[in-house]
Design a protein that fits this description.
The chain is an alpha/beta fold and 242 residues long. It folds into 2 domains: 47 residues, no CATH class; 176 residues, P-loop containing nucleotide triphosphate hydrolases (Rossmann fold, 3-Layer(aba) Sandwich). It contains 7 helices and 10 strands. The strands form 2 sheets. Strands 5-4-6-7-3-8-9-10 form an 8-stranded mixed beta sheet. A two-stranded antiparallel ribbon has the order 1-2.
């Protein structure tokens, strides 16, 4: 069996037979490689044309300063122990993103309730005016799944906060699916994550790879362990517990 690459006539595109004497049936003598056909559904793109660079927008929110700004539209996993201030810092940043874009932020709440979520914002002097709450409980009192909750978020939302990943999606498979789903959405997404007993992000290791940045909230500092637009690891001190 020949290892020579398959050729075709450059004029009539007939495939070159093994025995042809150098001539095609059409009389031409110029042969070219047969282009490789990509399987249906597979996308192969050129890297020659440059896409827009990742340009972070700077906000005064502490979480934004830790990240080196926020690239709008990307996804951030925010983890830490209970009471570290994850939701409070997400509330501060979400309020500023929504105000900056003059849009609405959507808070998917499976951890607290309306009153407790409202109380997050005054802790950092933030306003909840641009934030809308999507509760885990429906009007009839039944639980709402994360897929239905995300359907309540319009495509032009400024920002989404998922609080928390483990409460909305208990199984590892569901957590992965949730993160893969928000990755395809246009708004910036802040996903609050629990920590396990080892002091690491709870859930499968893949959770950290399914987002664009990961931030660990500690009582005295914020450590960014992954960020697609800033050098890592990076740590900033918290001026006070939030």
């Amino acid at each position: 069996m020949s290892n020579k690459p398959p050729l075709r006539c450059a004029v009539c595109l007939r495939r070159r037979p093994q025995l042809c004497g150098g001539y095609c049936a059409c009389g031409a003598t110029v042969w070219e490689l047969i282009p490789h056909e990509v399987p249906p559904g597979i996308v192969v793109e050129s890297l020659e044309e440059r896409s827009a660079p990742l340009r972070p927008t700077q906000f005064s929110a502490l979480l934004s300063r830790a990240l080196g700004g926020v690239v709008l539209g990307l996804k951030v996993l925010v983890g830490g122990s209970p009471g570290a201030g994850k939701s409070t810092l997400c509330a501060e940043l979400a309020a500023q993103i929504a105000a900056k874009l003059d849009g609405l932020g959507y808070w998917l709440d499976a951890e607290q309730n309306r009153n407790l979520v409202q109380e997050l914002f005054p802790r950092t002097g933030s306003s909840s005016r641009h934030i809308r709450l999507v509760s885990r409980r429906s009007g009839s009192g039944s639980k709402v799944g994360w897929r239905d909750a995300l359907q309540a978020v319009p495509p032009d939302a400024a920002v989404i906060v998922v609080d928390s990943l483990q409460r909305w999606a208990r199984s590892y498979v569901e957590q992965t699916t949730l993160l893969e789903t928000v990755a395809t959405m246009r708004p910036t997404v802040l996903v609050v994550s629990h920590f396990n007993k080892a002091g690491q992000f709870a859930g499968p290791m893949g959770n950290e790879y399914d987002v664009d940045a990961t931030a660990i909230i500690r009582p005295k500092n914020i450590e960014v362990t992954k960020c697609r637009w800033s050098l890592c690891p990076r740590t900033i001190e918290r001026p006070m517990a939030s």
